[in-house]
Amino acid sequence: MRYFSFLIVLMYFAGRQPLSAQGFFTDATEAVDFARDFAAQKKAASLLLEATARPVVSRRLPVPLTKREPFFTVAVQCDGAGGDDLVRHLSVRFSPDGDEWGEWMPFGSDAHGPDNMADRYYTSQLIFASAKNLYYQIAATPDGSRALEWTRIQLFFSCPGRTSAPSAGVHPVSTARGVCPLPSYQGRSDWCSLAECPYGSNPVYTTVTHLIVHHSAGSNTASDWAAVVRSIWHYHVDVHGWADIGYNWLIDPNGVLYEGRPDNVKGAHFSGHNSGTMGVCVLGNFQDADPKVSPSAAAIETLEHLLCWKAEKEGIDPLATKYHASSGLNLKTISGHRDGGPTSCPGDSLYVLLPQIRTVVDSLLHPVATSDPLSGQNVIRVVPRGDGDVLLEYVSGYRPVLGIGIYAVSGRLVDRFEMHSDRVVAMGALPRGVYWIQVTGPHGRQIIGMVR
User: Fold this and answer.
1) Class of domain 367-451
2) pLDDT in tens, 70-103
3) How far, in Å, are 230, 254, 262, 322, 347 from residue 258 at the CA level?
4) CB–CB of 168/184 below 8 Å?
5) Backbone phi, then psi, for 239, in 5-degree steps?
6) pLDDT tens digits, residue range 99-114?
7) CATH, domain 170-364, list 3.40.80.10, 3.40.50.11030, 3.10.180.10, 3.40.50.300
């Protein structure tokens, strides 16, 4: 078995802002040294792996971090004639003791990126590893049909540090405008610090016409989701070299919303076609996890209310298909990343939910208004509130007695009552899900609306 030898370079990334008292990040890079151990295979200090060659595995190497809690991450960058396809032939595995090893995890190529990005180097997706791991190995696997040549392989390790306590600086829901308020969220200084995770300088603004849904493709379990967000910020800014985190918003499995790039600032998330988009990342892996998992109900609920807020703000029809100039494609106004680029993002388990999400967003955006079939007058409307409840509100002086039925999607009757005046229905006390409100007017006409 052939082995890589590594020239280890420990350094803090140049250009980082002064650390706050928290001092979240610990970083290190390791650059592969081909020249010493691959004289027979190297060509101009490159590694050449023939199509018929066997996999090449590195020796056991220590994880080069002084701090690994609550977890650490690794990504790889490489140069070579094969372009970003090269990163697909590299894998990593970890060990707590150097004897027992975990499964090999492939470095998939990253399909995000800013508009007009230059292909100077090729960067993998981010891999999350347990803090208990002290050693790692990487492997290069031949293509089987062609030779592979790398001119540089560099590994980027990082630990985001623990979040000392849940942030008290969560921005509250505002009900000052419209039917879809912005959900409560953690701002930049709530999940990091402006010294360590500053906003990008010289932001470029865009008019948003399409809302793009992603998954992070990282871990589905974490005790510190703010640390996951910090890891993604670090990966985008210090590894990729982008101006800021690529997404405008991120959502964890508990339904907590995190601010990324500010509203209407063009992101780096849609395969180089970011103009006209807002990027939302649901944290988790909804494609490659084994067993495959689906996003939590709490995450989907926050996603739906966020998309409703933005659709109302920008006048976007959540059910429409519209031309997206940057990609040159006709896209659903609520689309998955895979609709505009060569990627499986946002994962099969989330992508299959997008039709339902569009429908729910539309129902939130257009509260149900019932109309009397004889007079033609609007009778009531159903208005979602920030606490999950809904307001049944008469819209004029015409106030007939109405029969109201609340049904689960299974058809099970949840509640039934007569309505004589405006009434708040405690939907927030029910299990999360989709419910139907059936309204029976004085002339026997039933109007049905869907709420969440």
Assistant:
1) mainly beta
2) 999 999 988 876 566 788 889 999 999 999 999 9
3) 10, 12, 11, 28, 20
4) no
5) -95, -55
6) 999 999 999 888 888 8
7) 3.40.80.10
